[in-house]
Amino acid sequence: MALTPEQEAEIESARAHPRPTLRAVSEGMEAHLYRAHPVLDHGFIRVVDYMGDDSAIVQAARVSYGAGTKHVSNDEGLIRYLMRHWHSSPFEMCEVKLHVKLPVFVARQWIRHRTANVNEYSARYSVLDREFYIPAPENLAAQSKVNNQGRGETLAGEEAARVLEILKSDANRAYDNYEGMLGQAQPDGSPQQGLARELARMNLPANVYTQWYWKVDLHNLFHFLRLRADPHAQYEIRVYAEAIAACVKDWVPLAYAAFEDYRLGGATLSAKAVAVLKRRLAGETVDEAASGMSKGEWREFTALWG
Amino acid sequence: MALTPEQEAEIESARAHPRPTLRAVSEGMEAHLYRAHPVLDHGFIRVVDYMGDDSAIVQAARVSYGAGTKHVSNDEGLIRYLMRHWHSSPFEMCEVKLHVKLPVFVARQWIRHRTANVNEYSARYSVLDREFYIPAPENLAAQSKVNNQGRGETLAGEEAARVLEILKSDANRAYDNYEGMLGQAQPDGSPQQGLARELARMNLPANVYTQWYWKVDLHNLFHFLRLRADPHAQYEIRVYAEAIAACVKDWVPLAYAAFEDYRLGGATLSAKAVAVLKRRLAGETVDEAASGMSKGEWREFTALWG
Amino acid sequence: MALTPEQEAEIESARAHPRPTLRAVSEGMEAHLYRAHPVLDHGFIRVVDYMGDDSAIVQAARVSYGAGTKHVSNDEGLIRYLMRHWHSSPFEMCEVKLHVKLPVFVARQWIRHRTANVNEYSARYSVLDREFYIPAPENLAAQSKVNNQGRGETLAGEEAARVLEILKSDANRAYDNYEGMLGQAQPDGSPQQGLARELARMNLPANVYTQWYWKVDLHNLFHFLRLRADPHAQYEIRVYAEAIAACVKDWVPLAYAAFEDYRLGGATLSAKAVAVLKRRLAGETVDEAASGMSKGEWREFTALWG
Amino acid sequence: MALTPEQEAEIESARAHPRPTLRAVSEGMEAHLYRAHPVLDHGFIRVVDYMGDDSAIVQAARVSYGAGTKHVSNDEGLIRYLMRHWHSSPFEMCEVKLHVKLPVFVARQWIRHRTANVNEYSARYSVLDREFYIPAPENLAAQSKVNNQGRGETLAGEEAARVLEILKSDANRAYDNYEGMLGQAQPDGSPQQGLARELARMNLPANVYTQWYWKVDLHNLFHFLRLRADPHAQYEIRVYAEAIAACVKDWVPLAYAAFEDYRLGGATLSAKAVAVLKRRLAGETVDEAASGMSKGEWREFTALWG
After folding, report:
1. What structural domains does chain A harbor?
2. Chain C from 70 to 109: CB within 8 A of any B CB
3. Can C162 be counted among the known catalytic residues?
4. A1: exposed, middle or buried (Cβ count in 10 Å: 0-12, 13-18, 19+)
5. For residue A152, which of A141, A162, A139, A164 has the smallest C-alpha distance?
6. Mind listing the pLDDT tens digit for each residue in C103-160?
7. Residues B30-84 pLDDT 10s
8. Confidence of residue D143 (pLDDT cuts 50, 70, 90)
9. Which residues of chain C have pLDDT under 70?
10. What angle do CA C259, C261, C266 make, to 5 degrees?
């Protein structure tokens, strides 16, 4: 995404005038404020506001546990303790507000995370721009043969070219017709009335870009990141999650490090998996049949543990 | 929407075998169970399950208020009292699960109601059908000239024909290309791999049909109905809300009657509006300038009160 | 509530070091930050953090409605429009975090507002202080004879004295025994082990003070204030709501003014009430029998409209 | 808890009249409906209504994944797959409504689970009964010396007797005074007015019993059970969780079995823990220093893995 000079100027203007506040300030996050981090071909994420920092998490926890937290000597240790024991409410005490520009099919996945506040650009009120997500060639993947919701190899040569040509021409034709139905392409004084915007929009494909303000607390944001920054997430939402994660890391470095250790990099084991690992640690060789796991569980288990 | 004979048979089969239960039963709702109520050209709503009835609301309220509810002599009076005084939790004690088939742009409005549970058909896993919403000619409305999010007159003659032609041909071309990219139209052993479903879907316009299971409690359903069965709601979601409202009326007739009186048919007044009405009741003539209201408020006020 | 010198010093220290931020700043709210506003005999509310201001509401709305908002000429008009039409999401874009000290029976009412984040002092981990709410004599009210959940006249003379004596002595005895069971009153080297804190706390009455951090968005806070700053709310929670409302008024003055006009000072009418008012405006005299309302509805209706 | 003959009769009457329904029926849950399962000395849980069964979970998942679910051959495999991959929405399609009688201090922990619907008996409207939780001697535990929120050894002999005596006499005195302030103990025509119920209740300790209707979906119920049926949960809430779990097992046996395997009996590992286990599996001996874990993490890790 290339910002227009007007947008660049607006961002610089918003960043030009720091004001004094008595609130908690995260230097790392101040550096991100208002700046657009490009995602995909026309999208971005921008941090528009935030509340709290690492010490706000600690402060909230100490209200809860009172003297009970004194034995944890420092902030990092306490934050790691909270993350390890699934104490979610202290992380809810931080909040962030993002401005996101994203394709509609990504927005549809994203909105399934309900515990957040959203203001989306309304195509009932206003006209959408002619901007569509067209994948880069290296992201044009074939359907996976083993995973119903996954991707396989990258499409090559002619097939890739054909797909790109379809996506581009269908998007442009749809947009031409959208404009045509709205009547905005007829400035010649014709009697055309123009279809209502709330109807005309239905002609636009799911790769058209929309935008929204999305506000979420840190606990729910971590949940979002765990699912969407995961390798199994669809590439087009994963890159948004990764761009957000990079900001979160600068915002609350201690909490993010705990999240990386306990969630992103960790593993969840079933009772069966615990039993198999214990047998292996005791020197036993355990195969699929002896594990009691289904074929799918065993495949996932051995992918991690060999 | 016309059901296929297979679907009709499935519904009749699901309705053929009543089983005994000790739970609260609503005869009015049993008559709706599983049956598809057609909405728009290919959509429907179906009640798939429900919990509770009017007496469940009363029962929950009596737990809360104990002896305090005895002075309300009957169920109807108590339900009206609860509705009038915004006691929401007793209405939350009823729950309904719907199967809905609807265009994507309607689904996008609908999902903004967050306090509900949803399982939507996933176009990452599975292939969507060739079904698109094409408005009936009488619903092809022009953009309203006074209301940014509303409709004006119905499009006539050639313009209507042109719009319908666009919507149909764009939808079909998009679907042809969707299939083509998926590679399902090439059963000839060609080397084509087929684009991943999660990518190919982005070519489909917002009038393609999707479907979901949607589960919601009665309090939140009333909130949905108040906003979406309202004359200001977009026609295409309003008809869904109306079809659901007809089922709710049979399910919990006392609660629905109270909802109609206090919410659908009622009015909300600002402090300024209360003051104007009191002055009018005292015989005074109050015009816009003397009301203290903005132009928009005054227009809405006089639309109701003259 | 009188703060200890240590607490006063801590607050002044937190207020002593403004730092630069690029975020939206509300001067009105900065003046409140960290300061304790006394409520009841030992309670307080303190603003610990906030996000956004009036212009953040407007900004979020303009993202949603795009060019559609241009016809509303100014921020105040747009905020009033949003409030009038129940557009809740722009108000959700502001957030506030409070530190509250309050009696347990007030906390139990408060927590019923679920859309908020809470960290409460845990009496499993830590020992509660000897602080109990004892009503001022003018708040010692008799049970209302007409309202099951309301108060009647103030208790007088001997009865008031007797009640105060009971509340004080029961609270102190309960706390003495709480300490005794915890074993903290036996520093004489006795072999007593001390009951687990999570059990000992069960001896404490509902007027003991607890404290929590409570974080909520502005939309849900307005909902809380509408119910709890209402004359029908119990006095002991209403004074908290009023103290919070005073801060909100300084934080987002335009939004608060709209809230006062459309919610606090407004009225909700049923379809029946609309019909009666219209008949009255047309010169007709309508009595209870002709209104179609129940006794209770009629009483509430005439309380406002005469 | 011993039910009164009236209550027994009411339950039997509610169970006496099965009615036909077309909804999903769980035989296992029908056997529980309305019956009170005793918990603690005066508490109980009763299933009052439910929606859905194991096949409702499967049905919802198949709507989402369409043809994508066909490769999972049976219901059990699909339910295990959903649980393993944290697909929560199909489990949200089941709902249960419970009637629970419980001490106030347990209710205060319980209500922290926000995603549920509650109607609690209101002591503003009505008078509470003289029922208090008094622990059985074997549950009178000392404060743990190593765990700030845990229990240590059982109190013995004189100290136990002293604690029980305090709890009983304080509860009774508090209730006598509650009644006295309400004025219900003076039927002699005295001029006493009686303190408002909303005030008098503040004298009652946290072991007084309250009751509520609690309605929750299966996904959120599993979350509740994972935290509250856990050995680290306070005994007094754990016994409620266990009583509920026993009903859930009969209601949705396949989902419950998956929950037991993947949640209750499973384990969560941090990235550090995964690394240590891999080194151990490779034959290496890893001690605390080499693990990179904190003292607390290492203690928890070795508790499971040796």
Report:
1. 5-133+207-266 (3.30.1360.170), 270-306 (no CATH)
2. 71, 77, 80-81, 84, 86
3. no
4. middle
5. A141
6. 999 999 999 999 999 999 999 989 999 999 999 999 998 888 777 777 888 888 888 9
7. 999 999 999 999 999 999 999 999 999 999 998 877 655 555 568 999 999 999 9
8. confident
9. 1-2, 66-73, 184-192
10. 105
Classify residue D289 as exposed, middle or buried by CB count within 10 Å of its CB (0-12, 13-18, 19+). Answer: exposed
Residue with the two structure tokens 């208020």: B65
Cβ–Cβ gap C163/D143 under 8 Å:
no
Nearest CB neighbour to B202, from listed A111, A198, A207: A207
Say which of A71, A227, A268 has its CB closest to residue D266.
A268
Using the beta-carbon criterion (under 8 Å), do A155 and B195 form an inter-chain contact?
A: yes
DSSP H helix total and E strand total for chain B: 14, 9
Whole-number average pLDDT of chain B: 91
Judged by average pLDDT, the poorest of A245-254, B176-185, D251-260 is: B176-185
Residue numbers belonging to the annotated binding site of C for dUMP: 109-112, 120-124, 201, 228
Which residue ranges of C are tagged as binding site for FAD?
89, 112-114, 120, 217-219, 223
- Binding-site members of A are 89, 109-114, 120-124, 201, 217-219, 223, 228
State both tokens at B265: 């048919």
Helix, strand or coil, per DSSP, at residue D256: helix
d(CA D91, CA D79): 9
Beta strands in chain A (DSSP E): 19-21, 36-39, 43-51, 95-103, 117-120, 141-143, 151-154, 209-217, 267-269
Q: Please check the confidence at residue A227 and state whether its pLDDT lies above 60.
A: yes
B149, A125 contact by CB (below 8 A): yes
Residues from chain C that touch B90, judged by Cβ atoms under 8 A, are: none
What is the interface pTM, i.e. ipTM, of the complex? 0.93
The pLDDT > 70 percentage for chain C reads 93
CA distance C117 to chain D (A): 10
> CA B243, B109, D221, A265 torsion: positive or negative?
positive
The Cα of B229 is separated from the nearest Cα of chain D by a number of Å equal to 25
CB under 8 Å to D23, separation ≥6 — which residues? B21, B33, B49, B50, D51
The mean pLDDT value for A78-85 works out to 94
Please state, in angstroms and rounded to a whole number, the distance separating the CA atoms of residues A75 and A57.
9
User: A95-122 as b/e, with b when 16 or more CB fall inside 10 Å?
Assistant: bbbbbbbbbbbbbbbbbebebbbbbbbb
